[in-house]
Structure formats: C-alpha cells, structure tokens
Write a structure and sequence with these properties.
306 residues; alpha/beta
C-alpha cells in the first residue's frame, strides 16, 4: 500500500484543497517558511524512503537546514535496531495465533496468497492484523526499490549531525505504533484489505508519487493518497487529521520562542483538507509562504573574437 510511503516515519498523506498561498509549480519538493522578527520555521515535505539516485537536496533546502538551530522530524528512530524490533514485536504479537487468511474476505484471499508467496514474510499468524499489513507494505516497498536508508530523513539527519544541529522528534516510535494498535480489529482488517488491493500496481504508483513529490505537485499527491485512505477512514483521521492538529499547535507555540527550526514531516501533511499549512492560517492566523527554487542564472553568451 502506497500509504506507507507517504505517512509515517516507519510513510505522505491526504486531501485535495489548495494551500495557504497559490504559487507556481516549482521543480522541487514543497518547502514553506514562517518568520517573524526573531523566529524562523521552515516546513519541509518528505518521503521517508526513496529509490537510489533521486536528486532532491536542492540548494535552498540545504541553506534552510544549515541555518537552523534545530532539526525536528516526525520521530527519531532508536540507534539500536534490536531495541526497535523488540518494541515492535511486543506490541504486535497476538495473545492467540489466528490464520491471516481468516481475517480477510474470500475475495481478497488470492491477493493475500500471491503476496505471501512473492514477498516471503515468514509466519504471520501470531501477529496483529495491523502488523501484517505494515509488513507486507514495507516488503513490497523494498521490492520496488525504495530504501529508507537514503530517504529524506536519513539525509537530513546525516547533514544535521555533520553541522552539529540537534535532532528531535515530534513523536516517539511507540506513539506511532500505537496509532495502528489502537485501531479496532475491524479497522485493522480494512487496512489489510486496502494494503492487498494496492500491492499489484504499487511500483507504477510509487514512481508516479515520487515524480509528483519531486515536482512539488502537492495536489496531485493528495489525490493519490486520498485513494489509499478510502478503505480506512479511522486510520486517516488518526494519522492525518489528529496529528496535523497537534503539529499546528506545536508550530504556533514554537513561533513564540526565538530561533531557527527546520521541521520535516511527510509531504502529504502539507496538502489537502485539514493540511498543516491550512490549519496554521485558519486556526492561528499564521501564513506560511512557499519557498521557490531560485531560477537558474542565464547562460552567458560566448565572447566574440575580434
């Protein structure tokens, strides 16, 4: 399911309304800025995993990060992958195993069988349904050539550490996993079915999604992700609506303190109804401005020899 490539730090997100200020479509991922006399917050839309060779770290993004006193991400993953895996497995295990095939309607079982045969996730009957959906989505993401090790957050963290810029998270990993774990079993099963429905054409959709992100086509991104959430409205509210509201409140409060912050969240949080940019303007009277890639300098005409 392309959702994972877009919403969590584990992937973008939703809607179709215009952002706070119309702007020409720049050939760069969306970057916004809020500034007053002593505070500057850049808000950057990310994709958490990317194919190798994706060139997105443009000069105006580099400059905004290098000038920051603090890099804020959705979450900062623990340095110990064993601890991360232990936390995930503790939350994901079922009290009693249940065949995964019994959790989806008969019409979805061929897609499930094909995914299990192709992706080879290992035994899943002992895990909760949300974990099954995430596992299949992440394995498909890897099969499609997407790698979180070269995703936007990984590059930003590396640059920040080289520049000795502190890195913090809006949420903990446990909070992010709780969004899924708090879903009812019925909603988890809807999530699994939606995931299975999106696996077959995920490679082409992922390529189109990355192209839209690179070009800053936020509304087209929003349309794509809205389709992902059609099968799980509760998950959409938890991952998008509720988080956007909390993050907008955090930004509004942070604007009361001096300093320079570079905030990076999934790019879909910056597009669509209830998006972060819109909430800042509507609820707090703040108007982020789109930062456009400076046009290339005109080529100099060759000198004519006399």
């Amino acid at each position: 399911m392309r959702l994972l490539l877009l919403v969590l730090g584990l992937l973008l997100a939703a809607g179709g309304a215009a952002a706070a200020r119309p702007a020409p479509e720049p050939a760069t991922p969306a970057l916004w800025v809020l500034a007053d006399e002593d505070t500057t917050i850049h808000i950057f839309g990310t994709v958490h995993a990317l194919p190798r060779g994706t060139g997105w770290f443009r000069p105006h993004v580099v400059d905004a990060l290098d000038r920051a006193d603090l890099l804020i991400l959705e979450t900062v993953l623990p340095g110990d992958p064993v601890a991360m895996m232990g936390l995930t497995l503790r939350m994901a295990r079922r009290p009693q195993p249940e065949p995964v095939a019994a959790r989806v309607p008969e019409t979805s079982r061929p897609a499930l069988e094909a995914a299990l045969a192709r992706l080879k996730p290992g035994p899943l009957d002992g895990f909760k349904t949300w974990f099954v959906a995430l596992t299949l989505a992440n394995l498909q993401s890897a099969a499609n050539g997407l790698d979180p090790a070269i995703g936007v957050e990984a590059v930003l963290i590396e640059r920040a550490r080289l520049r000795k810029i502190p890195v913090e998270g809006l949420e903990t990993v446990e909070q992010q996993l709780t969004y899924f774990d708090a879903l009812s079993e019925a909603d988890q099963r809807l999530f699994l079915v939606a995931t299975l429905d999106g696996l077959a054409d995920s490679r082409a959709e992922t390529e189109a999604m990355v192209a839209d992100w690179l070009a800053g086509r936020k509304d087209r991104l929003a349309e794509r992700i809205n389709r992902d959430f059609e099968g799980s409205p509760m998950l959409k509210q938890m991952l998008l609506g509720d988080r956007n509201a909390r993050w907008a409140a955090w930004i509004a409060e942070r604007m009361q303190k001096p300093g320079r912050v570079f905030l990076a969240v999934g790019a879909g949080h910056l597009a669509g109804p209830g998006n972060l940019v819109d909430l800042l303007e509507r609820r707090y009277g703040l108007a982020p401005e789109r930062v456009l890639l400076p046009p290339p300098a005109p080529a100099r005409a060759p000198r004519r020899r006399n």
